[in-house]
Amino acid sequence: MFLSSQPSLRNHLAAIACLAPLCACAADDANAGSSQFDGDRLKLYVAVPHFTVHHPDASKAKAAATEFCGPPDSKLSAFKDGGDKILVRFIEIEPDKNKACGDTPPVQLGVQYEIAKSMLATDYDVRRTGATFGALVIPFKFRIGADNPVSSSSTIAPYVGWRTGLLSSYGITLTPYFSAGLGLVPVSDPTTGTTDTRNAFSAATGLVLRSSKSDAFQFGIAFGKDFLDKQSKLQDPSVNKPWISVFIGLTSNGN
After folding, report:
1. Which of 10, 50, 88, 197 gets the most CB atoms within 10 Å of its CB?
2. d(C-alpha 125, C-alpha 87), whole Å
3. Distance (Å, rounded) from C-alpha 60 to C-alpha 77?
4. How crowded is the C-beta side of 28, counted as CA atoms within 13 Å?
């Protein structure tokens, strides 16, 4: 791609079109995506009549298998994800909504319940919030204000974020995040016309958007800055500019 020495609208559009995958490769793949519920907070939008009291003793659990109903607008905390089942406790219950439970007795505060994970993940309308983490991979950057804004400078770094409930009623998950780690930055030497790749500390913040239609597909934006040594910044002032990157892609584990 030919780029003139002065920034232009064409340069900017070309830079924004750069794609970079966000790879959710955390050890706990759901808080990097959607399968693990440990530590998450949930709000029920509808009555969910499938909670049972949890007993550590399996024989007692089987004998006390009465189902209880979580009324609409109730809030609960998931404190242990056991695979097929999740252990939860309710932190706020709307007693005025008990009518939606019909003949099923409502849940109570201060009681430990369990429920099949699928009930909260896919079967009922539930808003979920919680921490998320993974690995951020950005191969291209658009340096704001630089003469040649498109850069092949790469960043590979861990990220942490918070999965919010914003736009959840539209089937969209919005996650603000922060990332910091190693960056490889090309530094040009105007006297020799050569370019060297140098290490840098790279920090970024941004938003990731996922759709309930395909949680593996995601769109996001990152704003960041690379921090290099003084000599590199004097040699090539453009490396000191803040950057922006747009990424569209699939998570490596489908979450």
Report:
1. 88
2. 18
3. 23
4. 15
SS3 content of the chain, % helix, strand, coil (to 5): 15, 50, 35
Looking at the structure, tell me whether residues 110 and 204 fall in a common domain. Answer: no
Is 167:55 a contact under the CB 8 Å cutoff? no
What does pTM read for this prediction?
0.65
Number of domains within the chain: 2
For residues 249 and 18, give the distance between their C-alpha atoms in angstroms, rounded to a whole number. 12
User: Rounded to an integer, what distance in angstroms lies between the CA atom of residue 50 and that of residue 56?
Assistant: 18
Assigned token pair, 123: 């079967």
Contact 39, 130 (CB under 8 A): yes
Task: Provide the token pair at 35.
Answer: 């399968």
What pLDDT, in 10s, does the model give residues 159-184?
A: 999 888 787 777 788 889 999 998 88
Residue 187's domain comprises 9-34+129-250
Q: Locate 12 and state its tokens.
A: 């900017």
Are 146 and 214 part of one and the same domain?
yes
**Residues 159 and 136 sit within 8 Å (Cβ to Cβ):** yes
CB 172 within 8 A of CB 210: yes
59 three-class SS: helix
CA quadruple 21, 24, 30, 31: dihedral sign = negative
